[in-house]
């Protein structure tokens, strides 16, 4: 009961400092993880909400092609056509709430970041690829020569696209959107052709940043893409690929089961989603190659399924029992 006996029960300064140090170490370890999880959930919610708004807006447009005019040969000059900007001002703005529209010379005014990391967290577009999102249109350009199939048949892929330059806009919810537009996009004819260059189906490709320049400006977090394919009865998709390593390729049925087995929101991409990934593949840290989709060309175990080549974007039918690469996507 004496003063000295009560004092002997108190903590020493060293013990207090040690306790504070331990608390600080634990906080330093756990807080970034907690903050990261909160951010991931926030981005996922925003991404799904943005996709829902775009899907509804695109569905209200009678057609996605034909906006603006193109003149071959002047796409690299200041007099180049501004079809992407026209598409936003005269088409998309009628069905979607837009606060600010920026032409190709003022993309930064709409919050488009200049430094972005790909799905693997590496700086976007090295080794010869564009260094910024504003140069991304080169992915859609180009032409292809004849391709030889396994059975010896030849398909000629004659495709080229004029660089319509990018446009950008900010939504009423604060997202920054970069737009690449193809005013000459066409309806699906792969069922009759069976092997096609798929850039010609892409009408509009939207690369979004959920929070402008705030960061982390990384694909799969605050950066992603929404793609609208076909001019009428459009398919608007926003796949988020999952990067993982697997030594062996798979048959189509095995690939579908593998993706579904990962979790309830994971699956093989459908054909439109696979096309969207082929347009945006440099953002995804994925090497070019033939990848299974979930769609079937002909029924039966010996039938054919649809494959998408990532890189030079082309789709073709492959024997279901053949083994190709598997790339799962999440909703």
Please write the string of helix (H) and strand (E) elements: HHHEEEEEHEEEEEHEHEEEE
Distance between the termini: 67 Å
What structural class should be given to the helix and strand makeup?
alpha+beta
Helical element count? 6
- The overall pLDDT average reads 79
Radius of gyration, whole Å: 25 Å
With strands numbered from the N-terminus, the spatial order across the biggest sheet is 1-4-5-7-8-9
Question: pLDDT below 50 for ≥5 consecutive residues: which ranges?
Answer: 142-146
Q: What best-fitting shape do the alpha-carbon axes yield? A: flat
Main beta-sheet strand count, sense and barrel state: 6 strands, antiparallel
Number of DSSP E strands: 15
The percent of residues in helical segments reads: 25-40%
Strand percentage, roughly? 15-25%
């Amino acid at each position: 009961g004496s003063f000295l006996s009560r004092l002997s029960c108190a903590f020493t300064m060293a013990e207090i400092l040690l306790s504070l140090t331990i608390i600080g170490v634990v906080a330093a370890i756990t807080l970034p993880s907690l903050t990261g999880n909160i951010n991931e959930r926030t981005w996922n919610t925003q991404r799904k909400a943005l996709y829902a708004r775009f899907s509804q807006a695109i569905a209200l447009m009678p057609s996605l092609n034909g906006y603006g005019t193109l003149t071959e040969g002047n796409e690299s000059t200041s007099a180049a056509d501004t079809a992407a900007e026209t598409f936003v001002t005269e088409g998309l703005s009628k069905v979607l709430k837009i606060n600010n529209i920026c032409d190709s010379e003022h993309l930064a005014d709409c919050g488009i970041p200049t430094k972005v990391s790909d799905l693997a967290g590496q700086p976007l577009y090295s080794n010869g690829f564009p260094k910024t999102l504003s140069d991304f249109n080169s992915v859609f350009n180009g032409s292809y020569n004849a391709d030889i199939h396994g059975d010896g048949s030849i398909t000629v892929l004659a495709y080229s696209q004029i660089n319509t330059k990018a446009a950008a806009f900010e939504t009423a919810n604060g997202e920054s959107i970069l737009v690449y537009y193809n005013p000459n996009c066409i309806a699906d004819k792969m069922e009759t052709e069976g092997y096609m260059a798929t850039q010609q189906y892409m009408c509009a490709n939207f690369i979004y940043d959920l929070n402008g320049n705030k960061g982390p400006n990384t694909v799969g977090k605050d950066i992603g893409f929404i793609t609208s394919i076909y001019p009428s009865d459009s398919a608007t998709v926003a796949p988020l690929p999952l990067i993982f390593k697997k030594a062996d390729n798979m048959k189509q049925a095995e690939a579908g089961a593998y993706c579904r087995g990962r979790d309830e929101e994971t699956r093989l991409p459908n054909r439109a989603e696979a096309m969207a990934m082929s347009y945006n593949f440099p953002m995804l840290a994925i090497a070019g190659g033939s990848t299974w989709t979930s769609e079937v060309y002909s029924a039966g175990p010996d039938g054919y399924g649809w494959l998408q080549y990532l890189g030079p974007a082309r789709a073709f039918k492959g024997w279901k029992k053949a083994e190709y690469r598997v790339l799962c996507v999440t909703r």
